[in-house]
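SAMPLE LOG
Freezer: B-3
Tube label: C17
Construct: single chain, 592 aa
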Amino acid sequence: MDDVELIKEKINIVDLISEYLTLKKAGVNFKAPCPFHNEKTPSFVVSPERQIWHCFGCQKGGDLFTFLMEKEGMEFKEALEMLAKKAGVVLQKKADDKKDFKDRLFEINLKAQEFFHYILTKHPLGKKALNYLQERGILTEIIEEFGIGYAPNSWESLTRFLLKRGFTHQEIISSGLGVASKSGSYDRFRGRITFPLIDAKGNLRGFSGRVLMPAEPKYINTPQTPIFDKGNFLFGLNLAKGEIRNKKEVVLVEGEMDMIASYQAGFKNVVASKGTALTEGQIDMLKKFTENLSLGFDMDLAGDSACRRGIEIADKAGLNIQVVQLEGGKDAAEVIKSDPAIWQKAISGAVPIYDYYLTSIAKRYDSKKPSDLRKIGEELIPVWAKITDDLVRERYIQRLASFLKTDEKILRVAVEKARTASPKSYAPLLQTTKTADNVVPVKGRRELLEEYLIALLLHPPQESDFVPGFPETLFLAEKWRQLYVLLVLYLDSISFKSTAFNINDFVSTLPSELTVEVDRLYLMELDERFSEDKHWKKELEGVISELKKALIKASLEKLSLEIKNAQEFDKMDTVESLNKRFRDLSVKLKNL
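STRUCTURE (predicted):
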């Protein structure tokens, strides 16, 4: 037995998930509101029998490893190590016992952080940078807590330091600390204050470097590496996550200094996004801790298309979005240094995002001018069209109509037109991250019936020996046809052996791609009455009848079109033949 199976055997998934959620018994399974999306009716189901979970709202699911990875943002290796410790399992060592490449990158970052921090706090080369931080009001204990450092204005000081400690040029380059050169590598961070980029679990993934003197770029960051992705990182989340949970709100600022100044002043539910263009990865991280997001950027968000796209993703994810407004283009760090009460007042007075959009256009445009009126429409109608909640969208259509002194009906038509516009018409607005479109599609009645029929067949009453006999062609989807054939073979074999249906035994016979589908449908909640054979069989017969009707109706529609086509070309013999088939099928449908 390998480590994964051993851990699964020792840890009950219900016990693990109960540490995060309040699970309630629901038949043989357990239910709770989903922790990964906003919902009122619980659709998150846990099966102690299969040791799996699935949400029928957001469609996420898996085992205890995937739950931990989703909930804590862990990679599989981290989840494996944590659960092994919890289960008391000693993980098997790799044969070569070599350190993982990623582990080396984490190590080199820690060693670089020691170097930078020493230079800032103990070495004469860091004196100027330390004075700068003190002038900005950053306290010594905060410098220590955040591990802030300074990179000397030298081409190779860090490189030489790391080489002496056993790291290679390739590791220095792969970590983003160095840039490739003819001689090997040179330091990326030179003459800058360094901020360690530590993730929510305390792993040091990279650095951000801020210039001391006016220069461009003001900040440089570790580039994309095997352990760092700017789009999946939020600065300060490791320190702020507890307070975010307590206050049920997160304030998002743009830069490290804004976050650090806020934290020092007692605003400990603040994180920095390293830019205003929110990504789906960042939104997923925030959703693990709160549904309330306040944006504290020192710019006009309404005029920035990249930021708007991020806000659309956050809205689709179910976050309640507000904007913290500061006057005069000041950032949080500036305001806090002069008077923390101003920052507190701004956070308390945050306005809903769509109110903010209206305020922004009122400042930038004159609604009495036809040219400005057109610009307002071009800017806000696509935004209003992206509002996911129908009631909220309707409210802001009314607000915009009132502001423009325009008939609501005209605006409503324009918004609906934008909602149904082809991707080509609104291409710039639709160029978001790929997961922005990752909305669970609405399934047709036919597809839902096919899934429901499979779910019923996966839940035969105890002692049932029923083997279905309808043809697999009743299913349109190839995967359900394949699964049905395998299920009939299994049911036939256990009927012959007079043994009971066992979901784990059946799943062991399936290919992996079908196992995922079976697990999802096995967790579907069915009426308790179907535990009795007579009610279960009656429901089966009803669903099979509906599917047969659906097949005949589809055939009748196709025949109807063929008849019209034959009539247009005066093919009367064909018309008569098609009419006969149409009548026969109609009689068959009537008799079902």
